[in-house]
Amino acid sequence: MQIDPALKEDLKKYLLSKLNNNQIPQVTIRAPYELSAEDLSALKRKIDLLNKADIQVSVDPAIMAGLVIQFGSSVIDLSINTELQTLAHTLYETA
Fold this sequence. Notes:
Number of domains: 1
Structural class: alpha+beta
Strand content: 15-25%
Shape: globular
Number of helices: 3
Distance between the termini: 31 Å
Order of helices and strands: HEHEEEH
Helix content: 40-55%
Number of strands: 4
CATH architecture: 2-Layer Sandwich
């Protein structure tokens, strides 16, 4: 799984600002299946600031593949659903 560098930076800045305020950031991760400890560990290696966050994982069968990471009012949508919608919109606009 590859995370867009711009989204990673936004998440990093947000989490750092929360940590600087001595607050533990609340992060919700929605996935199409229950994430294993190995999956969470891989995410924490990719986004090291998740190590200091309170992470809630929920299963959302509407997601075909990928993840949706939500923190505060910000959402990072790494799901295939969004990629397919973007592709459909691009094809519609260029046709």
